[in-house]
Task: structure prediction
Amino acid sequence: MEYVPQRLEEYAERFTTVRSHVFDRLRDETSALPNAGMSVGPLEGAFLSFMVFMKQPRRVLEIGTFTGWSSIAMASALPPGGTLVTCDVNEETTAIARRFAEEAGVAERIDYRLGPATETLASLDGPFDLVFIDADKGGYVDYYEAVLPKLAPDGVILADNTLFGLADGAIAEHIERFNEHVRADDRVEAVLLTIREGVTLIRRR
Result:
C-alpha cells in the first residue's frame, strides 16, 4: 500500500537539504538486507534530525535500531553532552549501525543495547526528553506504556509507521490498536503527521 504517493515523497526529498555520504553508503548496504524498507530513509531521517535540533534533548531513547539511520541522524543533532540509548534484538543489524555511527563520528553519543525491548526499558531510568518508537508493531502499546512514565515533563514521543492502520492484516491491526490506545489516553495530546508511513507526535497534557 502506498501511504504517501511516490511522486510526492520524491518531490519532498528533492527539497530536503540534509545530506551525508554516510547515509548514501548506509542506504546501499541496507538495501541488500531483508526488510530493507524498515530504514527511515532520507526524508524521515532529516525530520528526526530537525526534531532533535529544535528540542535540544539531553537524553534520547530509540526503540528499534535496525541499521542505524535514525540513531545516526538524531545523534548528529544532539547538543553537547547529549546522549542516545537505542535498543534492538538483532545483533547483525546493530553491528552495521555501530559501524556507520563510527564513520559518521557520533558513536560516542550512542549507547547500544541488545535484547528484548521490554527488558531493556525496565532496566532504564528516566527521564528521557525524546523517545522514538520504531520496532515490532505488536509491541507498540507495551513500549508506549513503559516509556510514558519515564518521559520528561516536556518530553515528546515519536511513534513511526502509524499510517499502517489504513492497511489490512496483523500489522495494521496492531497499529490501529496503538492509534486508538493513544487517542483514548487522556494523559496525552497527539498529532499524526503524514510523513512517509506516518509519524505520531505525543506529549503530556
Summary: Residues 41-55 form the longest helix (15 residues). The chain has one domain: 6-204. The chain has a mean pLDDT of 94.
